[in-house]
Amino acid sequence: MKRVILLILFVSSILRANYLITNGEIALFYDGKNNILTNVKAREFSKDVLSNLQILLIKDYKIYRARNYYTQTKFIDGKNIFYMKYNINDNIVESYIILSNENKNDIFIYTNLNGVKWNEPYKLVYKFSPLILEGNIENKDGYYKYDMLNFSKDNKSNILVATERDFENFKVKSLETTLLKGLNERIYLVKDIKNKKDDSLEIVFSKKKPRFLNISFSEVMAREEKFWNNFNKKYYYLRETVINQIKKLYLISFSNQNSLNMNMSRAKYMEQLKVIYLNGILNRERVIPEFNFDRGDSIQNMFTYYYYIKLSNLKENKNIKILLKNNFIKVKDDIQESYKSIINKEGDWLENSLVFYNFLLEIEKLQNNELLFNEIELMKEDISKKVKKEILNSSGIIKNNNYIKYLDILSQENQIKNINKLLENTKNLIRLLKKDDNIDSKANLSLSLLLYKNNYIVESDKIFYNIDYFINYNEKYNELDLEEVYLYLINIQYRGLI
């Protein structure tokens, strides 16, 4: 019955869903409302590269925009291979988008035209709207180049440039050697389709000379399927829904899961520490990366100590006490400075309070005498009181569900009182916390974790497996939310499954 209810709730949003397609280096979105690929990003260039990418057909001087003939979109077999299907007056066009996990700067687009019944020649057009608004397009040996965009070419292809209105009237400029693209102009890669019933296009993001694989689409597909099959085999002992979350973590973290990049903002650095820790949970044989405990910021240093200790505990690293003993003066200074920052409510002080409190608990567990100074207990009490005042109303109940995770550092009495209230709030058709008829996955994951820590195992399992079904109901990746993935995998860790 529960799954029927969920199906009714979500089926309407799935029909025209938004999808995120990424290999961690390149990302683009399928905009379900407008039926186009949008916001193509490349991590190497730290910006969007294309505002959108569309597929067109031209026959007898009539332009058919595939977006107007939407039929179906999905990921193929749980892999990060995106499929689009269009029915253009009983002519079926199928396109596959693959962001390579072998060559991270490559996009492959394969268009299957076997379902097109037209006997006369027609044209297949890839329309690109670059965010580099002006520049020269070059006709190179084996490819076309526009800034960091490199398109594979064959003897049936040509590059045209025009504004959208001019293109509709077939007033275009054709590339020979070089061609200037103006401010409002689009790039149209046009291919003549005669006897051919399919087409492949490879796009490489590189300022330098690109390296094209020049392999068939069937080989591209085979390599991607092999990659994801090997990925799944690595976690064969886990449920498919858990593997889906690990895939998301991979896509978030592929480029820096073994190292800590010191040249980044505070927020990004904090996120990176979480990524490193989650990868440590999943790969306990992996060597602990080199940590720098002097970020020039006591809060960042405190986060670094905390996650270093957590990682070391996973790997039974015996050097924690030695490291802290050798640096205890600096660690004490960072503790004092972090405490002042939190008491003064500087920055994201609530999140900092949670990590700081748990860091002090870890110090106590280590029984490191140099750091077990009297103020630690007073600091914990002060932090707990300050958080309590911030997150609870006059009745002692949290003001909103975003504060659930902070209950962890309040007294047992406060936690139990709020647990009972939160469980009351889950007494609805889907047995989950809701806000304005929406289901907040992070609030429910936080509640499941709070319940588990307080030995409400049965209630925790009910919440977790309900929200697990909601999160994994559809295999689309419409976003990669690190906090959601983190809470999900920590729930799994508490259950001893990873």
Write the layout of secondary structure elements.
Elements: H1 2-15, E1 19-22, E2 26-31, E3 36-42, E4 47-59, E5 62-65, E6 70-75, E7 81-88, E8 91-99, E9 106-115, E10 122-130, E11 135-140, E12 143-146, E13 149-152, E14 157-162, H2 164-168, E15 173-174, E16 178-181, E17 186-193, E18 198-205, H3 217-234, H4 240-253, H5 266-282, H6 298-314, H7 320-326, H8 328-343, H9 349-366, H10 375-391, H11 412-425, E19 434-435, E20 438-439, H12 441-453, H13 457-471, H14 482-494
Antiparallel strand pairs: 1-2, 2-3, 3-4, 4-5, 4-10, 6-7, 7-8, 8-9, 9-18, 10-17, 11-12, 11-16, 12-13, 13-18, 14-15, 14-17, 19-20
Helix pairs in contact: 4-14, 5-6, 5-14, 6-8, 6-9, 8-9, 9-10, 12-13, 12-14
